[in-house]
Amino acid sequence: MNxxxxxxxxxxxxxxxxxxxGLAPDGGLMLxxxxxxxxxxxxxxxRGLSYPDLAFEIMSLFATDIPADDLRRIIAxxxxxxxxxxxxxxxxxxxxxxxxxxxxxxxxxLAFKDMAMQFLGNAFEYVLAxxxxxxxxxxxxxxxTGSAAEYALRGKQGVHVFMMSPAGRMSAFQRAQMYSxxxxxxxxxxxxxMFDDCQDIVKAIQNDAAxxxxxxxxxxxxxxxxxxxxxxxxxxxxxxxxxxxxxxxxSFCVPSGNFGNICAGHIAKQMGLPxxxxxxxxxxxxxxxxxxxxxxxLPRSAAQTHVTSSPSMDISKASNxxxxxxxxxxxxxxxxxxxxxxxAAGEGFDLSPLLAKAREQYGFASGKSTHAxxxxxxxxxYGQEGELIDPHTADGVKVxxxxxxxxxxxxxxxxxxxxxxxxxxxxxxxxxxxxxxAGLEGLExxxxxxxxVPNDAEAVKExxxxxxx
Length: 469
Ligand SMILES: *Cc1c(COP(=O)(O)O)cnc(C)c1O
Description:
- Belongs to the threonine synthase family.
- InterPro entries: Thr_synth_N, Thr_synth_N_sf, Thr_synthase-like, Threonine_Synthase, TrpB-like_PALP, TrpB-like_PALP_sf.
- It holds the Pfam family PALP.
- One of its GO terms (biological process) is threonine biosynthetic process.
- This protein is an alpha/beta fold and 469 residues long.
- It folds into two domains: 110-220 and 437-468, Rossmann fold, CATH 3.40.50; 226-429, Rossmann fold (3-Layer(aba) Sandwich), CATH 3.40.50.
- Helices cover 44% and strands 14% of the residues.
- It contains 20 helices and 15 strands.
- It starts with a strand and ends with a helix.
- The model has no long low-confidence stretch (mean pLDDT 95).
- Bound molecules: pyridoxal-5'-phosphate.
């Protein structure tokens, strides 16, 4: 299986090559040249598989340059009960109104990003050892992504992580989760500034070609193909849990920001998984809802991005969306280049003639949730079921309930646990006890390891130089 760029000006690459890539050199995103097709017999066979065995069947279709035994070993070492809390890895439960919830957030950092990042950490270590090289990840985080990357890469051979976060801006839990890591290859850098300042420093380092080459600088952002591929697996796993037989269909409702999670659902459907609808749930930052309602994609500026109580969905442009638009436009790289030239010019684009295709052929639907919806949903679910859901999952539940049709089985993806967002949970449900997974009691009291630097790319480069010297 070869990989091509959505912009069409990058030579085909192997899986091992795209695994270590961010954006393609032509500015596009890498995708498999075609989606493998799953026939009825294979789907029947897969229904009975354990999560790691299912993951192997799916990933081996994409990671064709990794020997089967090696891939099996990487997967077996990733999707364990020890890391994800249950043998099922992504168990599905049913609320009293019939809505199903698939738990994706029982990994080490309590958010769904662990599902892909834990795999990526093990795959990186394997590919780097094989190539006899090293990789130094430089990233910026406002919470979930950075901690998922650190927990995936801690202690790994050949990898260092330099993760910037805005000093004093994350929740006490999120800070403790990252800064309490004592692994020698993990460096937390608190920047005296905002999240955008951290991202600007990442860009400045990425744009320094000599520095980037000398220090083998890479990233692990959500456009990484390895992350999207690993996420495809849980759509299959969720489908099998939510149905009795392969004659049934399921719709997935996905709390969305960068379109990475639901992009994997789109690919699962294209492979032949019987998915009826893919429902995009946004918060007040509703660029994606606007697209699926009107066909117009109008990315916003950072200043127009709302700070909300489902912060991991606070995005102004959806970085994975280009993969779907590539398919929607008939995989025409020229069209994609023209559309993103408009985005770069700050205009956005209008694909309303293709809106019916997005809905009917690709099954997309969308809805939006606000702070008040989120609080009401958390409160209602707590009152009815006695369980606390996190604010992002609440956005999904709200949208799923408002769009669900008679007889439709809807699985809402649970993207984080309530324990990560205690303030919003208390605002919604009062002074309730918020359950925390075993082993995380007293997290905030552990010693923390973090260097604080001024808002200056040079200061960060100096830390990288002296660490790798
Ligand atoms: C990252 C994240 C999302 C958004 O996922 P995308 O892949 O960016 O669409 C939703 N919820 C939580 C808790 C997240 O961490």
